[in-house]
């Protein structure tokens, strides 16, 4: 038996089983763990928004941030085989973006009561549609795209299933292409508790937006949204990585330009996943990013993926045993702001609320 154990073949098998196989599994997309996904990166070379050396408020957005030494053609020519140019487009202003102001609700009243309602009076924010201003924002962006010299038309279009993003895609792209967009569940906003993040059924979307296609496993009912559970950044980043993996696998090598119409929360998660600096995209805005899918994989943690209503409603948060001001600020999620100044004002108001 001892001589058998010392056999070179046996020793090789033991080494492979205990040392090499686990490493291979960890690097493989076929791992039994669903949260093993590719690593993604983004280039800092082409756009001011992506360049950490340029202050965010100094980015020249005249040509969507493209540096003057590049043209769209030269950028595409410079892309590596595993890189693609993504246009991450945020929907135009929706009724959920302005509802709290229009109904004159305090932040606490909005979070703890009104955000979980479908609407008030003539204002509906459940799966919110675009406001008139939102339609105007999208018309202006569409004009900017059409009049931009050499703008690269996307080879593939993707869109969130929520009404405001479907309307945004129609207002932006429908007159510029005969292609349509594929509805992707993972392109949706951070979801749960508030009704603006709940989508309509697939049959409703088919009836009211018949020109869109659906990804193959799109469910009829919204099986993700729950009224007592809120998606946190950790799960959102996992979704963002899953979305990117799907797109890279679906797109052919010569399909270099990808458009996704989506939301501020998932845009922040995507930028985080591709190791891009945080950059505010206002309603009706769009940010171009060159993204690379690496040939290595990692585990996207999901041990802190969701929070509950106590983390959503500040009045409840303040009653949590041992909850500090810092925890309250970190747990509360407010995403209806369009600029860094708005985010600073939000934090100032919220700190005043809990002081």
Describe this structure in words.
InterPro entries: His_Pase_superF_clade-1, His_PPase_superfam, PGM_Phosphatase. Pfam families: His_Phos_1. Keywords: Signal. This protein is α/β, with parallel strands linked by helices and 355 residues long. It has a single domain, classed as 3-Layer(aba) Sandwich (Rossmann fold). 38% of the residues lie in helices and 15% in strands. It contains 14 helices and eleven strands. It has a seven-stranded mixed beta sheet with strand order 1-10-2-9-5-6-7. A two-stranded antiparallel ribbon has the order 3-4. The protein has a two-stranded antiparallel sheet with strand order 8-11. Helix 6 packs parallel to helix 7 and helix 9 packs across helix 10. The longest helix has 20 residues. The radius of gyration is 23 Å and the shape is globular. It starts with a helix and ends with a helix.
Task: Kindly report the CATH topology.
Answer: Rossmann fold
Q: Biggest sheet, in brief? A: 7 strands, mixed
Helix content: 25-40%
Which shape, going by the Cα principal axes?
A: globular
Residue runs with pLDDT of under 50 for 5 or more positions: 16-32, 330-342
Task: Output the CATH homologous superfamily.
Answer: Phosphoglycerate mutase-like
Element pattern in H and E = HHEHEHHEEHEHEHEEHEHEEHHHH
- The strand line-up of the biggest sheet is 1-10-2-9-5-6-7
CATH architecture: 3-Layer(aba) Sandwich
Our estimate of the beta-strand percent is 5-15%
How many independent structural domains? 1
Helix-strand makeup class:
alpha/beta
Signal peptide: 1-26
Keywords: Signal
Pfam families: His_Phos_1
């Amino acid at each position: 038996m001892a001589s058998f154990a010392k056999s070179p073949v046996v020793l090789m098998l033991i080494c492979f089983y205990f040392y090499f196989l686990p490493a291979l599994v960890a690097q493989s997309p076929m791992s039994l763990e669903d949260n093993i996904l590719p690593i993604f990166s983004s280039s800092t070379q082409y756009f001011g928004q992506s360049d950490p050396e340029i202050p965010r408020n100094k980015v020249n957005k005249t040509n969507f941030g493209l540096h003057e030494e590049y043209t769209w053609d030269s950028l595409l020519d410079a892309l590596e085989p595993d890189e693609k140019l993504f246009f991450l487009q945020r929907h135009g202003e929706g009724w959920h973006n302005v509802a709290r102001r229009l109904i004159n609700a305090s932040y606490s009243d909005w979070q703890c009561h009104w955000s979980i309602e479908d609407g008030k009076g003539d204002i509906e924010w459940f799966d919110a549609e675009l406001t008139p201003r939102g339609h105007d924002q999208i018309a202006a962006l569409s004009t900017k795209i059409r009049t931009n010299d050499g703008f690269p038309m996307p080879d593939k279009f993707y869109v969130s299933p929520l009404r405001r993003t479907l309307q945004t895609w129609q207002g932006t792209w429908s007159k510029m292409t005969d292609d349509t967009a594929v509805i992707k569940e993972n392109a949706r906003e951070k979801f749960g508790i508030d009704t603006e993040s709940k989508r309509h059924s697939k049959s409703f979307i088919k009836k009211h937006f018949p020109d869109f296609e659906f990804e193959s496993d799109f469910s009829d009912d919204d099986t993700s949204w729950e009224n007592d559970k809120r998606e946190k950044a950790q799960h959102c980043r996992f979704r963002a990585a899953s979305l990117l993996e799907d797109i890279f696998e679906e797109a052919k090598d010569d399909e270099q330009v990808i458009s996704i119409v989506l939301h501020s929360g998932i845009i922040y998660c995507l930028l985080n996943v591709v190791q891009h600096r945080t950059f505010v995209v206002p309603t009706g805005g769009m940010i171009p990013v060159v993204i690379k899918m690496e040939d290595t994989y990692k585990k996207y943690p999901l041990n802190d993926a969701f929070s509950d209503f106590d983390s959503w409603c500040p009045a409840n948060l303040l009653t949590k045993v041992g909850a500090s001001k810092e925890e309250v600020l970190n747990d509360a999620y407010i995403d209806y702001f369009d600029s860094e100044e708005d985010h600073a004002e939000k934090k100032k108001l919220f700190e005043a609320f809990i002081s």
